[in-house]
């Protein structure tokens, strides 16, 4: 099914007598949801863009490329970086805004600006009963009732099928630069990233690639400010081997590789995504005994490549965080099991918004 209007979508969900597998662009699937395929790509188009108000509204099936083109024409951008998972997951198609929101897809800039959900102003969606629900608006302050805007971000289509989303957008920075520290161990790299992120120099990216032996720190903003902060940041690491990159295209390419997990692309095996305390990351990574690693968010996000069928959670044991299998198969759920109280709340929400259990059933359970 590929509805072309919100009414058609509501009718399709209301008339569903069995499970539905919800798909946006199909570029970032995690886990498997059985059921008849329901695609949102027919709900497409930017419905409102006010550059002066830093606000954009679009239908959920709108391709990311269309949105980025509209923003680029006004020298603006989405406030968060959207990872392109096609190279890592071997998928095709184009990312859609609804799919991005459903996955709360957020790249390296999250440590400075926030995640996708933090810039989501409003949503419209159809719940499992075929009811059209609207929440939020076109301004950041909206505190009445349930915060369904935040709830829908990261729900992976289990609570409702998005039809329209609105975002706050931001101007593009004048300049960007990247400082690279070479030859650090994982523990040294995490300590260096923590020092940089704790400095007053507004670091907007902090990543470590063990295979390349480099730790990357990014700063963005006005040209003179970037130049000044780059020098100050270098002074934090006396005696280290340091290189810097200030050419715009090269800086963009460096961080696109981090954003899209390029070091793990083109290799066989299962891919796991570990969210944890940055200070815990080196020890947890050692427990994984991974074939390849990539640290992002200052160590708060660890990407790991493991042999086919490996249960990363069994290797990790108990820890403060969660591990998600983003590629591969096995006898454990793709999503990290919630603690019992959280699982009960999540199940209650699913019963409230999808009482018949037709929307991606079992995907996040």
Task: Describe the sheet with the most strands.
Answer: 6 strands, antiparallel
CATH class categorisation of the domain at 6-172? Alpha Beta
Just name the CATH architecture of the domain at 6-172.
2-Layer Sandwich
Helix-residue proportion: 25-40%
Distance between termini? 24 Å
Number of helices: 12
> Which structural class matches the secondary elements?
alpha+beta
Rg for CA atoms? 21 Å
Total count of strands: 16
Low-confidence stretches: 139-145
The CATH topology label of the domain at 6-172 is Uridine Diphospho-n-acetylenolpyruvylglucosamine Reductase, domain 3
Shape: globular
Can you walk through the features of this model?
The structure is a single chain. With 365 residues, the protein is of the alpha+beta class. Among the domains are: 167 residues, Uridine Diphospho-n-acetylenolpyruvylglucosamine Reductase, domain 3 (2-Layer Sandwich), CATH 3.30.465.10; 85 residues, Alpha-Beta Plaits, CATH 3.30.70.2190. Helices cover 28% and strands 27% of the residues. It contains twelve helices and 16 strands. The strands form four sheets. Strands 3, 4, 5, 6, 7 and 8 form a six-stranded antiparallel beta sheet that branches. A four-stranded antiparallel beta sheet has the order 10-11-9-12, sandwiched between helices. The longest helix has 14 residues. The two termini are 24 Å apart. About 2% of the residues have low confidence.
Could you name the key traits of this structure?
Uridine Diphospho-n-acetylenolpyruvylglucosamine Reductase, domain 3, single chain, six-stranded antiparallel beta sheet, alpha+beta, 16 strands, four-stranded antiparallel beta sheet, 365 residues
């Amino acid at each position: 099914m590929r509805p072309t209007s919100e009414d058609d979508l509501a009718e399709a969900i209301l008339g569903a007598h069995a499970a539905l597998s919800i798909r946006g662009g199909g570029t970032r699937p995690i886990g498997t949801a059985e059921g008849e395929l329901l695609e949102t790509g027919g709900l497409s188009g930017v419905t409102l863009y006010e550059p002066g108000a830093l606000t954009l509204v679009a239908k959920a099936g709108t391709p990311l490329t269309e949105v980025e083109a509209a923003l680029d024409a006004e020298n603006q951008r989405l406030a968060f970086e959207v990872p392109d998972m096609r190279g890592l997951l071997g998928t095709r198609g184009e990312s859609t805004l609804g799919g991005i929101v459903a996955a709360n897809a957020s790249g390296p800039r999250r440590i400075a600006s926030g995640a996708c959900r933090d810039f989501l102003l409003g949503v419209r969606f159809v719940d499992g009963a075929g009811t059209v629900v609207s929440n939020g608006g076109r301004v950041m302050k909206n505190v009445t009732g349930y915060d369904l805007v935040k709830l829908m971000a990261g729900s992976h289509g289990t609570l409702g099928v998005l039809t329209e989303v609105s975002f706050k957008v931001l101007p593009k920075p004048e300049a960007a630069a990247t400082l690279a520290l070479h030859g650090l161990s994982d523990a040294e790299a995490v300590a260096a990233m923590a020092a940089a992120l704790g400095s007053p120099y507004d670091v907007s990216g902090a990543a470590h690639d063990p295979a390349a032996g480099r730790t990357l720190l990014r700063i963005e903003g006005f040209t003179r400010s970037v130049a000044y902060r780059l020098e100050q940041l270098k002074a934090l690491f006396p005696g280290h081997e340091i290189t810097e990159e200030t050419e715009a295209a090269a800086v963009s390419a460096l961080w696109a590789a981090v954003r899209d997990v390029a070091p793990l692309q083109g290799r066989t095996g299962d891919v796991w995504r570990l969210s944890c305390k940055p200070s815990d990351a080196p020890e947890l990574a050692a427990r994984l005994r991974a074939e390849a690693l990539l640290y992002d968010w200052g160590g708060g996000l660890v990407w790991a490549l493991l042999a086919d069928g490996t249960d990363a959670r069994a290797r990790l044991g108990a820890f403060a965080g969660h591990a998600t299998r983003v590629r591969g198969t096995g006898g454990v759920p793709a999503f990290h099991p919630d603690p019992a109280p959280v699982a009960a709340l999540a199940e209650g929400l699913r019963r409230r918004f999808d009482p018949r259990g037709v929307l991606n059933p079992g995907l996040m359970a």
